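Researcher: Last one for today. Full complex below.
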Amino acid sequence: MSDLLRTFLRNRKAAIGLAIVLAYVAIALAAPLLAPFDPIARVGRPHQAPSVEHWLGTTRMGRDVFSQLIWGTRTSLMVGIVAGLIVTAIGTFIGITAAYFGGIVDDVLNFLTNVVLVLPQLPLLLVLAAFLGQVGPWAIALIIGLTSWAWGARVTRAQAMSLKTRDFIQASAMIGEPTWRMILVEMLPNLLSIIGFNFIGSVIFTIITEATLEFLGLGSPLALSWGTMLYNAQTASAIMVGAWWEVLAPCAAIVLIGVGLSLMNFGVDEIANPRMRTLGNVAKALRIEKRLLRQRMQEASQ
Amino acid sequence: MRFLLKRLGFYAVAFLVAATFNFMIPRLLPGNPADIMLANSGGMIAPEAREALMATFGFIDAPLHEQYFAYLGSIFTWDFGLSIKFYPMPVADVLTQALPWTLFLTGSALLISFSIGTLLGVLAAWRRGQLTDVIASPTALALQSVPAVVVALCGLYFLAVRNRFFPTSYAFDPKLDPAWSWEFISSVAYHGFLPVVTLSVVLIGGYLITMRNNMIGQLGEDYLAMAEAKGLSDARVRYAYAARNALLPSVTALALSFGALFGGSLITEVVFNYPGVGNLLYLGIVGRDFPLIQGQLLIMTLAMLLANLAVDLAYVFLDPRLKRA
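Model: Here's the assembly. Have a good evening.
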C-alpha cells in the first residue's frame, strides 16, 4: 500500500492534484473554525464589494460570500464523494459481472449500459428533479449516483474482459476457486487503477452536475452549496449589477477542485499506462540531446 | 449493412425505453401533474384544457397498458398536447420553433471543437514534450473539468456585461425580421458567437486528450516506421497514416460526448437566454409546464439517437472492415 502511495506521489501531477484535494477536505472539515461569519446571517450591506472585513464581498441579502463558500465546500464535497461511491460501486459491479459471467448476463447488462449511455442525461436529471420538486443535496447525490454509472460500467467491463483471458485467471479457474474469490481476490485488485479513475472522474462529474442542477433552481434554496450560491447570484442578477464576486467565487472553487481531481486522474492514468506520460522525462531528454549537439558543434568548429 | 441494421434496432429499443421512462415518471411520483398544474395556474387553465391535459399524460379512464399504448400513439402522431406556458400553442409547434437554434448552436460548437481539438491532439502527440504538448495538454486537461455553467457565466460577465463586446441574450436583434439578408445573418452570428464559443471551450479539452492518447498509441507501430522509411513527408505520415488510424477511437468518444454536448447547450442557452430547446426545458420546469417538459425530453432523446446514428455511419466510412461484416 505504501508502495502504491509512493509511486502515486512521485508523479508530480498526481501529487499537486492530491494536495489541492486535501486542502479542500481540510477546509470542509474545519468549516466552523474557518468561516468568519454565519453564512446565512445578514452581516453587511447588500452587494458590498470585497474588503478587509468581507474578503469576497457580500450577497444581495448581505450575507458573507467567503463564509458561504467555505460552508458550501462541505456540501459540494460530500455530495461529490457520496455520489462518486455509488457510481463506482454500481459501475464496478455491473462491469465485472458482465465480463466475468459473459453470455446472456453480459448481453443483458451490456445492452442496459449502452441504452443508458445514449439517453440525454442532463435533461433527464432535470425532469426527474422537476417532478420531485426542490430537493436537498443528499437527494441530488442519490439521483446522480443512480443515473451516472454507465460510463464506468463500460470501461470496467472492457478492462475485466481482457483480464479474464490472462493465464493466472485461467489457472485459478482451473484449480476451482469459488466465484466470489475469483472476483474479489483475483480480479478486483488488478482493476484498481480503472476503479480509482472511475471514482475520481465521477466525483468531478457529480460536483459539476450538482452545481448545474442547483444553478437551474432544482436544488433546495436552503442548502449551502456552490450551486445554490450560483442560483442565488443569478436570481439576484448579480452579474447584471456588477457584483462579480458573488458569481466568480463559487466558479473559482468549482474549477480548482475540478483541476485538482483531474490532475490526480491524469496521474493515475500515467502510472497505469506509462506511454501517456507527457512531458517531464521526454522533454528533459530532448533538451539534453540538444545541448550535447550544440556542444559537439562548438567543439567541431573550434 | 448488417451492422447498421443492428444499430437501428438498438436505437429503436433505446427510444422505447426513454419513452417508457417518460411515461412512468409522472405516475411513479406523488401527485397528479395535471392537478399540480391546475393549482399553479391560478384559474388560467380552462376546464376543457384540463381534459386535454389529463389526456396528454395518458390519465384517461383506462387500465395502465391502454394508457401506455395511447401515449405511444400520441408520440408517433407528434402530438404532445398543449403547452401551459405558451397556451394555447401546441407543444410540438413550440419545440419546432426552438429546435433550429439548438441545432445551430450544437452543430457549430461540435464542428469547431472536434476539428480543433483533434488537430491539436495530433500535434501534441507528434511533438510530445515540446511546446505544443506542454501548453495544449495541461490546458485541455484543466478545461475538461470546467463546467459549462462556469464558462458561460464568466463569458457573460467579462465579454457581454463588463465589456459590451457581445449581446447578453436572444439569438438575433429583436428589431429584425428573419430573412436571408446580410443584416439578419450577421446579427445571428453576432448573437451566437458567445454561446458557440462557450460550448466549444467546454468540449474541446476532451477531444484533444482523447486524440492525443490515441495518437500516442499509434506512434510505435511498424507501419509508421515503414511509411517514414519510404521517405514520405512528415505531414503525410502524421495525417494520412497515424491520424487516420487514431481517429477511430476518437469517433467513439465523439458519440459518448453527445450527452455533454446537449447538456452544455442547455446551460449555455439558459445563461445567454438563447431561444433553443434547452432554454424551453428550463422555462417549462420553472413554469411547471409538464407537457412541454415531456415533449422536450423526447425531442432531446431523438436528437441524441440520430447523432449517434450519424457517428455509426461515419464509423462505417472510416473502418472498411465493417462494410464486409
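The two ends of chain B are 8 Å apart (CA to CA). The first helix of chain B runs from residue 2 to 28.
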